[in-house]
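We close this part of the discussion by returning to an individual protein. The amino acid sequence and the backbone structure tokens for this protein are reproduced below:
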Amino acid sequence: MNYTSEEFHIHYISSYTLFVNSDYAYDHLVVVDEQKNVLVFMKYETTRPSTDAMKILSLPFQHIFVTLPHQSLVLIPTDVFQHAEKDIYADYFIDQNTDHTYIKNLSSGITALYQYDLLLYNRWKNLFSEAHFIPSFEVIIRQAQSNIPIQGETLGVHIYDSQADLFLYVDGALQLYNTFEVQTADDLSYFMLSIFKNFGFTNKIQRILLSGANEGSEWGERLSKYTEDLEVIKAKSKWITASDDVKSHILNLNILIDSQLCV
């Protein structure tokens, strides 16, 4: 999809913000002004950027936020993590080079060590060396926290590309965050039921949070079978547009919309 508002003017480029969400299948480009009006919205296959997209990417934006999926992730209690000991976790990562390992302190008392896919990261780093890079899992966890009860179990599901990030809270504490390949809703059910079995849950869980899709999608309909309380995670920030097509596309871009809140 290519959308450019008549209100988009090159001579105001210094006041605009470029948001990029990239994974292994699609890129999303969004340009907003200072009032959060969507001026540009583009979606294209990662390996086949359109001519219009290339023009947008060549512009000298001063404010740029890029969200990327993680390649590897380890969660450690913040009170026991020592930055000087980062290299001892190298065996848990696909890339053994600790220079490619990044650290985020999450507000839930957990420190995340993670890596991006190097080709994906370098692609955007070479384009925008001064951009803010945000791992998608950080936005997801921050958005989910306001929906986590102090008691009980909450399973989170973030859908993107052909993958699903599954994360579990028990009595307000984050217990796991794993990524799985899912082509169908049956694949998703398999991995969910594995988590249910490992944690001794029955056929239904207290609450499920869905991100990256809506209740009416195949993912939402399947998840509703495992809980009486299915909630869709929504962005805290708001983008404004008069285009119905753009509105429908940004509904599931909660990660991108709130990415700057993590900087």
Summary: The longest strand covers residues 173-181.
